[in-house]
## 1
Amino acid sequence: MKKKDNQIKLNRIDYTKIILAVLSGLLLTGSFPSHGISWISWIALVPLLISLSDLSFQNSFRIGLLAGIIHNLTLVYWLAYTMNTYGNLPLFISIPVLFLISFYLALYTAIFSTALAGFCKNILVIINSYSQFLLHNLVHHIALRLWPHAIDL
């Protein structure tokens, strides 16, 4: 009975995981330099990593695909207009092409998510390692701001 309960828990995607994947996709788009908040790139993957905990391979792929589609649709939205204006494609053709391109690009995020689920059952270990890396870089950056002539560690 216990094993079956764990398997049901592994195969379940709840609304929290979906919201975290969407948030991660939006944060990834927001981290591009044109928006002026590029520092967000350091934390953009954290919601995705949290949403991947306790998921099977298939559901990790799905969550990664969702995050990738949201990210790529909000990043390359201008392609539909460009294909319509300069490629003379009708809008009803250029919008599906935009979705196909976004889907193709989202496969990279999905494969990344599936690989993480395969290599590390406890995603929180990766988040802990990543947060230590971020803390080290933050302290290093502050030290260089306070002492600009200090030796780079």
Note: The chain has a mean pLDDT of 83.
## 2
Amino acid sequence: MPSAANQAVATRGIVIMENNQLQPSMPEQGATAAPPFVAYTAVPQVEAPLEQHLGANAPFKLPAQHQETFVKLLPWITVVFMPFHFAAVLLLFGVSALASLVGHFGWTGALLSAATLACDVIALPGLFKRTRQGWAFFVYAQAIGVVGKLFSFSLFGLHTSLVLLWLSFQVKYKYS
């Protein structure tokens, strides 16, 4: 067990060290070894529990051949959907501006959608090069998308964003 000076956060049997390495606090007997946790995002305290539940220890795992296919197709899928996302952001800003004329202020969805689009644009070169930064910005976009879907009560959109978040943690270590 690491000393209290080295321990940053302890959650559900894992310890995040100052160097963002994840170590099990008590190894379980007969458990398969998951890859050691390495924080790719700026918030390892949030990433570690997500990694634990959506990554290597997830109850449903994506087969290795499908992981490689997903990593190859992800940037191209992002490129295909980006113009539609851009048009949707413009539409949301237009509708929000019209709604503000009659006293309804609904800028939250438009701002969250614009932030998601910005993260997708920033992530795109890194997704093609398979860098950690590209993966991190894709995860930021999905996390912002989840918050936006919760605000808009979009169950289908929420489900889609959560599946993409799960897929991104399944392929996390394909990005270096």
Note: The radius of gyration is 19 Å.
